[in-house]
């Protein structure tokens, strides 16, 4: 797991084993992203890389660098007026299931995300990392114009969330 936009007393990369979770608190006014990296291989000193969503730092810590697509992203803007905003985005492709569940606070803050493995239905044209991730059509084909010429149909309804768009 990695994040950009450092806030006090935190790291910008950490291991999150399968089935586990981590709670984080951020100060009012914080804005940033979290993403999961897969296929990681780090040595005892924290140097290495990941097969998907690597940040290019060569270490567990991302030091403010973003994920290399394809990467499932969670995005947060906290304390914008009286509201907080969060989403799970597939605009940079997809590499793993992710969900955001809010606890505490006020208002109706519903969970958001996708817990289905979309890689199983990723078209061959969009597959990356030996099938371990699915590129966005815009990244894979280069431009929205190419996207229109090579329109890809999906059977899974989750793919419609920010991955493909008509221009």
Automatic annotation (TrEMBL):
Keywords: Disulfide bond. The keyword Disulfide bond applies. Disulfide bonds join 40-50, 55-62, 122-134. Residues 7-27 have a biased composition (Polar residues). InterPro entries: Osmotin/thaumatin-like_sf, Thaumatin, Thaumatin_CS. Residues 1-27 are annotated as: Disordered. SUPFAM superfamilies: Osmotin, thaumatin-like protein. This is Thaumatin-like protein. It comes from Rhododendron griersonianum.
């Amino acid at each position: 797991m990695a994040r950009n936009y450092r806030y006090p007393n935190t790291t910008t990369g950490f291991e999150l084993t399968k089935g586990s979770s981590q709670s984080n608190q951020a100060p009012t006014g914080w804005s940033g992203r979290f993403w999961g990296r897969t296929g990681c291989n780090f040595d005892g000193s924290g140097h290495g890389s990941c097969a998907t969503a690597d940040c290019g730092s060569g270490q567990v810590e991302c030091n403010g660098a973003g994920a290399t697509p394809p990467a499932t992203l969670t995005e947060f803007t906290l304390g914008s007026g009286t509201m907080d905003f969060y989403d799970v985005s597939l605009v940079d492709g997809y590499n793993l299931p992710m969900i955001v569940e809010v606890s505490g606070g006020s208002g109706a803050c519903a969970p958001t995300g996708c817990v289905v493995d979309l890689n199983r239905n990723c078209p061959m044209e969009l597959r990356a990392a030996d099938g371990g991730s699915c590129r966005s059509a815009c990244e894979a084909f280069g431009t929205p114009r190419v996207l229109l010429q090579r329109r890809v149909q999906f059977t899974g309804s989750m793919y419609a969330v920010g991955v493909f768009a008509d221009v």
